[in-house]
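[Discussion] Sanity-checking designs against the backbone

I'm trying to build intuition for which residues belong where. Below is a structure token string of 359 positions. I'd appreciate it if someone posts a full sequence so I can compare it with mine line by line.
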């Protein structure tokens, strides 16, 4: 939007306070309005009934621009198209000021020379853009309209939503063609979901990368990366700063925290992996706990390629487990396990026959 100056008036209402700071779908209402102005946005000012708009906005006007657009922070549905349409109409009609349902377009030099607005002519555009959020009921209506706009955009790009009514997608999310999204999902932040991934039902994905062909079901993925063709869930919890490799299996009730998981590694169920680097082709058995905290500090565990960690093992960090190593089920490991070694750390089994006495 060349040669345009954009200014937003910050509006307050008794029932909700300053509308500019209220967040809708990952952005404040002020941010949504500023987005419609693009690079032409020059500043925002608190609206006052007692100060005429030309006087209020004059300190923010750029004198070297041809046109100045004045919008309100309580109209977050405003689009760039409507702004451009209004400026175009002002030029075509050779007007000094164009009054919209909620907002104005001025010739900048005209605006700099007046103290009051005398135009009574009202011009109409896409009126949904001017829906005003003056209470929280209106905020909910605006939120629903924005949500539907975002979903419609993705559907037009080749994304399938099984149940759009129960799906939330934030404004900064990028979704590739051929992705399918189930019901009850919350996808937000700067998340990127790549082609042919499947997001099943009831997931929360925040600021993460889901690679091609991955599948996530009923899980949390937060500030992390899920590799190509990897399956996550159901009921997995991928905490921030985790990188899951390709063709992995992260299963039921598995928690991964600040860890790197190599390609083709399986962490199938009921395990906790924290502050660890796990190699490729490993098997982490049921109930394995990587104990990363000693009560004072966090420590890392390193597990080599193709290691096999039996069920119900405790790995006490700091620790190194070599490649092709085996750890017997039920072991608590505190010392390094070399490559290709078998580690057993549990009491020897004792069997006492006829221990249960007859009555």
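Best answer:
Here's mine. Compare freely.
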């Amino acid at each position: 939007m060349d040669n345009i100056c954009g200014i937003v008036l910050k509006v307050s209402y008794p029932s909700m306070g300053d509308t500019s700071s209220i967040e809708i779908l990952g952005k404040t209402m002020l941010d949504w309005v500023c987005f419609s102005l693009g690079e032409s946005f020059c500043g925002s000012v608190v609206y006052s009934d007692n100060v005429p708009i030309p006087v209020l906005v004059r300190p923010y006007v750029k004198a070297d621009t041809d046109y100045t657009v004045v919008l309100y922070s309580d109209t977050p549905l405003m689009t760039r198209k409507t702004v451009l349409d209004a400026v175009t109409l002002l030029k075509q009609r050779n007007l000094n000021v164009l009054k919209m349902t909620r907002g104005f377009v001025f010739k900048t030099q005209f605006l700099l020379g007046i103290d009051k607005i005398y135009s009574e002519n009202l011009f109409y555009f896409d009126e949904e853009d001017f829906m005003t959020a003056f209470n929280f009921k209106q905020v909910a209506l605006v939120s629903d309209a924005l949500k539907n706009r975002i979903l419609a955009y993705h559907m037009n790009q080749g994304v399938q939503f099984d149940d759009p009514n129960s799906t939330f997608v934030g404004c900064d999310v990028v979704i590739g063609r051929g992705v399918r999204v189930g019901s009850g999902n919350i996808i937000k932040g700067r998340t990127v979901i790549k082609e042919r991934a499947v997001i099943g039902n009831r997931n929360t994905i925040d600021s993460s990368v889901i690679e091609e062909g991955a599948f996530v079901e009923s899980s949390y993925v937060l500030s992390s990366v899920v590799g190509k063709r990897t399956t996550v869930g159901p009921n997995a919890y991928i905490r921030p700063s985790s990188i899951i490799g390709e063709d992995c299996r992260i299963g039921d009730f598995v928690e991964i925290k600040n860890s790197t998981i190599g390609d083709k590694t399986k962490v199938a169920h009921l395990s906790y992996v924290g502050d660890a680097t796990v190699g490729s082709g490993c098997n982490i058995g049921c109930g394995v706990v990587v104990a990363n905290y000693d009560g004072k500090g966090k420590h890392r565990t390193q597990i080599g390629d193709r290691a096999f960690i039996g069920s119900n093992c405790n790995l006490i960090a700091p620790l190194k487990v070599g490649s092709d190593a085996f750890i017997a089920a039920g072991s608590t490991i505190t010392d390094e396990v070399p490559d290709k070694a078998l580690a057993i750390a549990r009491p020897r089994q004792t069997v006492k026959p006829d221990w249960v006495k007859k009555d």
